[in-house]
Amino acid sequence: MPLLMTGRGFRTELERCGALALFVPLEGGAETRLLRRLRAAGYRAHLTSARGLGDPEAYLMQLHGIRPPHLGHHSVGRAAAVGEVQRVMPQLGPALAGDGPVLLWLLEGQVLSSSELAALCELCRREPRLKLVVEMGGARALRWQPLEQLVPA
């Protein structure tokens, strides 16, 4: 890996594809440099973990409901047996309110199923300002590829 990485190739590939799968060395550092370069280029970055994402479109773009975990100490007689539904704002709602490009950086993307990856690719196709980087695991050297190549046809 070069000492000073401009990130220009990564950014052009991201703008061309819309969604990239990123494989980073386990010692870290390269992804932070890329993220910093993208922020300097005008992207509003939103980092989140892929664990617990559920339905990507509902979680990221729509008002959705969640249920708190039942810890066994609460009375379930006043609501459903699984708890009360709480309404949660979409994660990318405020970020997409502006005019500039929005970057969603997903950590631990190796836990996503192929249908979730396909839904994320479709979301990037429908919303052209949204760009997506999914960290898919470790590698000996920094490399990336279009996320669509990981989704079986």
Mind explaining what this structure looks like?
It is a single chain. The protein is α/β, with parallel strands linked by helices and 153 residues long. It has a single domain, classed as Rossmann fold. The chain has four helices and seven strands. It has helices at residues 8-17, 30-40, 56-61, 114-126; strands at 19-24, 44-49, 64-66, 86-88, 102-107, 130-138, 143-146. Strands 2-5-6-1-7 form a five-stranded mixed β-sheet. The radius of gyration is 18 Å and the shape is globular. It starts with 7 loop residues before the first helix and ends in a 7-residue tail after the last strand. 22% of the residues are buried.
Descriptive keywords:
five-stranded mixed β-sheet, plastoquinone, Rossmann fold, 153 residues
Shape: globular
CATH superfamily: P-loop containing nucleotide triphosphate hydrolases
Radius of gyration: 18 Å
Strand-pairing-aware structural class: alpha/beta
Tally of discrete structural domains:
1
What are the segments in which pLDDT stays under 50 over at least 5 consecutive residues?
Answer: none
The major sheet is characterized as:
5 strands, mixed
How many helices? The count is: 4
CATH topology: Rossmann fold
Main-sheet strand order equals 2-5-6-1-7
Indicate the proportion of strand residues.
15-25%
Q: Assign a percent range to the helix content.
A: 25-40%
EC number: 7.1.1.-
Organism: Cyanobium gracile UHCC 0139
Enzyme class: translocase
InterPro entries: NAD(P)H-quinone_OxRdtase_su_N
